[in-house]
Each structure stands twice: as C-alpha cells, then as structure tokens.
Amino acid sequence: MTKVTSSHWGAFEVDVRDERIVATRPFAEDPHPSAIPDILPQAVHHRSRVSRPSFRRGWLESRERTGRGGDTFVELPWDEALDIAAAEIDRVRKAHGNEAIFGGSYGWGSAGRFHHAQSQVHRFLNTIGGYVSSFASYSTGCAQAIMPHVFGVPFLQLNYEHQDGWHTIAEHTETLVMFGGVNPKNSQVSMGGVTRHETAGWFETFAEKGMRCVNIGPQRTDAPDGCEWMAVRPGSDTALMLALAYVLETENLVDRDFLGRCTTGYDRFRPYLLGETDGLPKTPDWAAPLTGVAADTVRELARRMATTRTLITVAWSLQRGEHGEQPFWMSAVLAAMLGQIGLPGGGVGYGYGAIGGVGKSFKGLRGVTFSQGQNPVTKFIPVARAGDMLRRPGEAYDFNGRRDTYPDIRLIYWAGGNPFHHHQDLNALHEAWQKPETIIVNEPWWTATAKRADIVFPATTPYEREDIGRSNFDDYLFHMPQLIPPVAEARDDYQIFAGLAERLGKAQEFTEGRRAGEWLRVLYHAYQGMARDEGVEVPDYEALQEKNWVRLPIQMEGPNRTLFAPFREDPEGAPLPTPSGKIEIFSATIDGFGYDDCPGHPVWLPPSEWLGTATAAAPLHLVSPQPGDKLHSQLESALADVEGARPETIVIHPKDAARREITTGDLVRVFNARGACRARARVSDDILQGVVALPTGAWFGDPGTNVDPDGNPNVLTRDVGTSRLGQGCSAHTTLVEIARL
Ligand SMILES: Nc1nc2c(c(=O)[nH]1)N[C@H]1C(S)=C(S)[C@@H](COP(=O)(O)OP(=O)(O)OC[C@H]3O[C@@H](n4cnc5c(=O)[nH]c(N)nc54)[C@H](O)[C@@H]3O)O[C@H]1N2
Ligand SMILES: Nc1nc2c(c(=O)[nH]1)N[C@H]1C(S)=C(S)[C@@H](COP(=O)(O)OP(=O)(O)OC[C@H]3O[C@@H](n4cnc5c(=O)[nH]c(N)nc54)[C@H](O)[C@@H]3O)O[C@H]1N2
Ligand SMILES: [Mo]
C-alpha cells in the first residue's frame, strides 16, 4: 500500500508492507521536499520504542524519587498501569490541589489535528480540575512578551497575518537586511505541516531580480548562497542596529514625518542614541569593537537602507538569548526611522525562514480544533522558567509587569515534548527533576525524558492512527490514514487519557461518549461548515478519506500583503492597539515596570556570556541552532545509528581549530562550568572566529556520564530568563571551551 501523509516537515508518500513502513518518497507537488522522512522506516520500528506501560522500580516499590534516570523499569499490563496512575493523580490533587500538577507539557509532538498530544493532555487535566500551565514557547517567548507593547498586535499574528508575504517582497524590496539570516533549512518545518517548501525558491527569484540580500550573523550558512555575509558577534545585534540608527540620525536620513505621524517616544530615545543621557554616542566606531563590524561598513549599509526600499528581517534566534527583547524592539525603531513601515516590501518582519509558513499568504480559514476545555487553575509560568519553578517553589519572580510566585509542583504530566532535549542547563534540570513526587510521560520512544519518568505510557506515532492534517499556514488538507497497527502495545494519547478519565469518574466529560473515529468526523464536519461560510468548499469526510489530500483554493497570488499599510495611510483613523495608538519607540507601560534589564526604550545591554566577556576558561561563543536533518530530538534514535553520525557536528573557525590542533572529523569535548559533551569537529570559515555552532537535538545521555556522549548543547547553555519582561529562553547566550579528545 502507498499513501500520502502529512507531518511538521511536510507531506510525503509512505510504502507499507506486512504492517511495516518500508519506504518514504517525496510528495509530488512539493518543489523542495525535505529529506527528514528518509529515516522514518527505521525510526518508527526502532528498538527504542516504548513497548508497554513501564514503571520506574524505585517509584513502584517505595515511591522513592532520587533515582530518576538511573533506575530500571517494570512493565505492567495496561489496566493495572492505568489504575496505579489514576490513583496517584487522585492522591496528589486531593492532598495538594490541582495547583500541584504541572501540565504545561511544552513540545511539538506530531502533526495531526485530533491526536495532538498537548490538546489531549490539557483537555484531560482540565476535566479533572486543572493544572499549572505555561505561557508562550521556547521559540518566541520573549518576542511574545515585548512586541505587543511595540506594535499592539500579538507577535505570532504579526508574523503570519500582517507582515509582507514573499510575493510582495519579491516585487518591491531592493535591500533585504536579515539579522540572523533566513534559512531554508529551518523553513523545512512548520507547526502542523508545510506542504510546498518555497523559501529556497524565493531566494532564487530575489537573486534574479537583483535584490541585495545581507545576512547579518555569526554564520554564512544562515542564508542561501548568493547572499552577502556581514559577520557579527552573537548577542551584539542591538549595538549594530543602534549604530545604523546613529548614522540615519546624524546624516539626516531619518523620515521625521513618519516618526511624527506614526510613532511615539522618539524624543525619549534620541538623547540616548546621541549619548546625551549616558555619555556614549552610539556611533559606528562605538559599535565596531562590540559587533566586530567595521564602522565604514555600517555607514554604507545605513545609507543604502535609507535610499532603497528596505525590509529588515529578524530571526527568532535573536530573542533566544539574554536581553532578546532589545534587538526585537530596536529593529522596529530602526524600521520606523527609515519610515518604510506600511510601504510594500519595506519596514520590518520577523521569523522569515524560521518556519515554513511565514511569508506565505493565504486567505484566513479557521482550523480543525479539538477543544481543550477550561482550566480552573489560573496559575501559569513563562514556559522557559520550568527549571526555576521546580527549584524555587513559593518564591517570587517578575514577568511582563506582573509579580507572581512559583507553584509547589508534586506531579508532572508530559505528553508530546522532550524537556531533556529542549531545556537549558540539563544537568541542573536533572537535579531539579528529582523533587516532584511523581512524573508521568506519554512517549513513543525512550527519550531522555521518558527515562527520567516514574510512569511511561507508550504512545502511538501518527502512522499508527487516523487523523486530519491541516495547518492554518498551509493550503493543503490531508486525511492522514492509519498506515500500520500500533507498534507493540502503544496506544493513542486519546485512549490513554480516556482510560485515566474513566478511572477518575470523568469519562463522559473527556470523551463526550465518542471514540477517536467519531471525533474525527465531528471535528471535520464543523470545519467543513466553517470553510463553507468562508466560501471554500471541502469534500465530505469519506471523500477526503478516498482522495487522501486536497489543495485548498486559498492562495493569494501577486503582491498582496503589506504590514500596517492602512495604519500608515491614516494613523488616526486606523490606530494600532497600543496605548498611544502608534508604534511605541518609548513605552510608558514598560518604563512603569521599572526593570533595569528592560527599560522604557531599546538600549544596548551586553549579555552576561558573549565574546565581550570571554575568559580563558570559556573563550568561545556557542550558538545552538535547529538541526537540519530532523525536527528537534525527533527520529533521533534511528539517526544516531547511522555510522559516524554521532556525536553531533560542531562547526569551528580554522584559526580557533588550529590553536587547539583540531581538524575536521576529530572528536572533541565541548565544556564549561555547567557541563560537557562530545562532538565531532567540522572546520569551516563559514563561521565567525570565536564562535562555534552545535545544533540541538541529540538525546541527552544517562546520568553519571560526565561528558554527554552524543552532543546535546543544552548541557552547556544557561538557564536564565531573557529579562524580567520576557523571561524567554536564553540558549544562545553561552560561552564554552573545546579540546580534542
Ligand atoms: N540550546 C537550544 N535549545 C533549544 C532551542 C535552541 O535554539 N537552542 N530551541 C528551543 C525551541 S525553539 C524548541 S521549539 C524546543 C523543541 O523542543 P521539543 O518540542 O520538546 O522537541 P521535540 O523533539 O519535537 O519533542 C517532541 C516529543 O514529542 C514526542 N511525540 C511525537 N509525537 C507524539 C505523540 O503523538 N504523542 C506523544 N505523547 N508524544 C509524541 C516525540 O517523540 C518527542 O520526544 O527546543 C528548544 N531548545
Ligand atoms: N530542520 C529544522 N527546522 C526547524 C526546526 C528543527 O528542529 N529542524 N525547529 C523549528 C523551530 S521550533 C523553531 S522555533 C525555528 C527557529 O528558527 P530560528 O530561531 O531562526 O533558528 P535557529 O536555528 O535557532 O537560529 C538561526 C541562526 O541564528 C544565528 N544566531 C544565533 N544567535 C544569534 C545572534 O545573537 N545574532 C545573530 N545575528 N544571529 C544569531 C545562528 O547562527 C543560527 O544558525 O526553527 C524551526 N525549524
Ligand atoms: Mo521552536
């Protein structure tokens, strides 16, 4: 049998023989298919699958909690396993209340609208009284806090619904200034799926049109070949942006009319820019030693930006570091000074390349959604503060103008995420993780997180269940057929939670009396009605099953979307939803919070770890980007089997390598005071001297291994919020040393 299915990395064909996935092939309509599914046959049937419900021996026998990660597991039959888990959940909620249950459960899980692990776990926990949740994402947590203060619009809405689409950029942009690049490697994936991979193709078009594309960041490879590379030290972008702004201000290249009509607070920012408030004019010469970019290069770029249609783009990675609020806010100020916000192909935009859907323009069509219900518990944490939450119960912390205390968590339920891949400072997380009384994880594979749980329920993968594939940022609709039976005794998350809900007397609330197949039809029917209301006909469920997939007629061709065009046209008549109705260069709201790590207008704040604070013990800046060959830590067990694939590859500059007598292919130890991992060196001048890059995604090793064997960079990263405002993930703020092994 051959069928098409969808995934976060796109659609692909699957060959099935004797109830096994034997091969995958690209989807015919995808111009640049991802190679990620190549490994799927090995991964789905890998020996690292969780076969049966498993209990950590120490927990099962004596509720002992210090052995997480180092213990053996006992397999039990499903009924008994669900009984024990339900009784434990019941005990915790009765003894400590639902505020003692952490169900934030961050992670990407798999595509598919019904069997979406987060929706399932949240709905379940809501039916039994609620859980402590988490706000935003590791991807854009900091931006989601700061950017609404600046533009008034939720950050992701800005990315997906407002900012210029590729068509508009291709038509109008003359200079594309990309902080952190725009990397087709990253746009291979999108939450819920990206069917046509178009980013690389757009850059071919830009090149044909003679667009000048400048990649500003530590790695040449962050943008397609043919783009200029302006190497800049990680963490220093705000200084560079300030220097560009200084040139605009002092060479009279600022659009004062735009500033007057559409912004507020330039008068508060300008004295800082000119050094009147701190004695430090933010000149290109001031910035040069901070950024590593020559002053003349900055002047030339500023003049070019002021005299051509210029779009500034900012990669999400820039806010995944300490003070990540600043380059995001400052990019908006710089764009405002240029006065091109609201003109097609000009202004500023975020996350192009981060995710396949950004830059595409479709008519809005609501999605297929399974209701998570209402959470009676209002307590939440900023998502990346999970480690702090476990370490500091009852202690106060700041977040975006509010002061709260961390809850005292007794039980953690995680489904569809891998914190021992994604969280920073994993050795510290491992310590903190020993504190809760019980940890339950649903997982298809024995990940580092599953190995550190007390109860592991084996979950199916999307290939083992029927689902609907649909993303709001894509123009395809899929019936995702069940391709193979569940591997070993795996069950769908839905079935697992239905079993727990039943034991807790909430079967009806959770299932509403429906089986998964019935839910699919109910959800699809609602979606079909909504689509019809929007003028889009989609086939009946049975017809979609038969067809396998359809392309929806929702594409917007030609230049079609310009960020804040109506606002520019008429700032009084179409104000932004900020307190002033304008773009906030100075925010009285933020100023009122009184945060020294995020004051009332953008400022240069050096991170605690960057090349400016390099020491003999940790002289290199580590960036840990997303892996090109997979999604985060998914499919990792099969990839790690490939001869020579592990440990992960770390990119290092020839001069840094020579000093350490490292050559390409050498095994190295990467280390700092927080931890150490192995990696395999690749010497390349595609990276700025002083910077090394090790992608995320290797599975974190077992406790007791001092040097993480496969190369997970999060043994090295710092677990600290971006600032009291955003409290986002600061993974890119890390210094390390490297030695040959
Ligand atoms: N150093 C550093 N760290 C980072 C980042 C960085 O840039 N640098 N980036 C951060 C970012 S942006 C992100 S988004 C995170 C990503 O971190 P995660 O989203 O946690 O990573 P994934 O590997 O996608 O984890 C998903 C897990 O869900 C499991 N899964 C898949 N399908 C199902 C299912 O149907 N049911 C269940 N129960 N489980 C399923 C997978 O096997 C996998 O273990 O990493 C963050 N960490
Ligand atoms: N193939 C694949 N694609 C993915 C993912 C994946 O796991 N695999 N994950 C997806 C997810 S969840 C997300 S959130 C997005 C993330 O998308 P991004 O945040 O854009 O991606 P990253 O790979 O973290 O970082 C991109 C580049 O930023 C540069 N960089 C790091 N720090 C700085 C800095 O301070 N200044 C400048 N100028 N550049 C810097 C690094 O050189 C790095 O290669 O990617 C998505 N795409
Ligand atoms: Mo992400």
UniProtKB/TrEMBL annotation:
Residues 620-734 form the Molybdopterin dinucleotide-binding domain. Residues 5-45 form the Molybdopterin oxidoreductase N-terminal domain. SUPFAM superfamilies: ADC-like, Formate dehydrogenase/DMSO reductase, domains 1-3. It holds the Pfam family Molybdopterin. Residues 49-503 form the Molybdopterin oxidoreductase domain. Its cofactor is Mo-bis(molybdopterin guanine dinucleotide). It comes from the Bacteria. Keywords: Metal-binding, Molybdenum, Oxidoreductase. Belongs to the prokaryotic molybdopterin-containing oxidoreductase family. This is Molybdopterin-dependent oxidoreductase. It comes from Sulfitobacter sediminis. The lineage of its organism: Bacteria, Pseudomonadati, Pseudomonadota, Alphaproteobacteria, Rhodobacterales.
